[in-house]
Predict the structure of Kinase inhibitor.
Amino acid sequence: MAFTLTSNDLRDGEKMPETQVFNGMGYNGDNLSPHLAWSGAPEGTKSFVITVYDPDAPTGSGWWHWGVANIPANVTELPQGAGSGKGGLPAGAVQTRTDFGKAGYGGAAPPQGEHHHYHFTVYAIDTETLEVDENASGAYLGFNVHFHTLGKASLTVIYS
């Protein structure tokens, strides 16, 4: 069985709905993290990590929109709004700092007129916890994920 990531809110390759767009920086979205569900995790998975990354941001290093670590292995779904303070994050899960400067989901907000890709990825991790907290950057989370990944599944949406 393949490791897959699906969503009731997002469709791979399609436009991000306004519900998931940032509210600020010239945008009036709802800034709600999307529903995400995954299946087919590799054997030996002890936890999951979710990231949202925009490689098109004009920073030289992309833009981290969301990071959630230490999702227990028995959790295979997050409801819409889980990363936006609406409840639904499992006990023990940790949201890391985004490039907006704080922990929690930050939706799409590309510079006006630019076309960006948003990569939503779930990683199957070989340890129950990564040593990260709400102050960890996306790069630091990614560094830790790199050494513990058993598999990953992604979907990509666009926004302009």
User: Anything to note?
Assistant: The chain is about 5% helix and 35% strand.
